[in-house]
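Input record (one chain):
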Amino acid sequence: MNDKEQGLTNTQTEKEIKSKGRRHFLKQGSKTVGVIVAASAAALQNATAQVAAPEWMRQPGSLPKGYGQPSKFEEKVQRVWGSGYATVSPGTGASRTPLQSLNGSITPSGLHFERHHNGIPEIDPEKHELIIHGMVRQPLVFSVQDLLRYPMVSRVHFIECAGNSGGNTLASAPLQNVQAIHGLFSNTEWTGIPLSLLLTEAGVDPQASWMLAEGADAAAMSRSFPLSKGMNDAFLALYQNGERIRPEQGYPLRLLLPGYQGNMNVKWLRRLKVTNEPTHTKDETSKYTNLLPDGKAHQFPFVLGVKSIITHPSGETTMPGKGFYEISGLAWSGVGRIVKVEVSTNGGLNWQEAKLDGQAHSKAAVRFRYPWNWTESPAILQSRATDEEGNIQPSRASWTAIYSPANRFHNNMIQSWSIAADGGVNNVYA
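The corresponding structure, as predicted from the sequence alone:
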């Protein structure tokens, strides 16, 4: 066949494809990954009207601002603040990230979850200092300007409150959305100084094995952590998502302990003390321990387990009719990199591997995606993550067998969303 004949054949094929029409390919597409939802009849009828210039094309737009803001049409995408301890300690509480309204894997700085123990201090960076002392050869004092001169690294890491998903440890499944249940979790790019660099400069005593980190908030929030972590991947963050970290995230300086429970990443960092034993502060003895069935508590459960959450579709949403949907969510592990996420649409009877969106980083969230054709039959959606160390996200039954019914921390059990025939999505235990 010559080029001319080939060209005629291609043209003929294109005409045949067009003649079969949109409906044929949607039917065929329901059997493949590449399904695209058909436009509604009303939308097709209005196609001609859409050609006319809308009102915002008929006049000049507004001038740029010095600092960009989201569209006013996205004002509803906000954190939700809860202050259960405010009567005891003003400024104490948490705000949750609206995971159901986000996509990709990076959380915008303004939507990163918050957890405060006595409010957000307003710290003058010209007066703030970081002290490194204790079992070191030479105690060091740094101004913020001093720290800004050091070599820096940029890494993507998640931060998750140890109490995240605690509502799902209750006897009955809370009828809430993904933000209310799992919103004490965010994933961003952090830039700062490897802690090992400063510890080496201070000269650590060979007998030392622990460190104490203390914040400059009114609660002097403080936690102990192993020196080995400080010499490994810990760093002092000065930037978040390319800009200086915000006050609610620890401005001008916070500690980053990748993969460790959230409040160990001490904000407004003012002091690091090198010791040979844990300090047993109020924030690591009165809470942030895991209760066991025999009444004992597991102290210092630093590392967060492998976990995943389906965010689309998720609780308190409605699926508008049968057809193609992309099941999507986030997966992470405090141990390392996520290597696999599986999705079930029948409550765990069968599992199919989802596609990881982009490169998975160590101790960072990765988005997963799975194509699904919903037939309007009731379904239960679940996701199950596996990390590079072979850890697999546990079922609800497996997790509850390990801990006391009163334990609210470190919940990484599989999340289940039920879908009713009418498209309503709710949190359930399965």
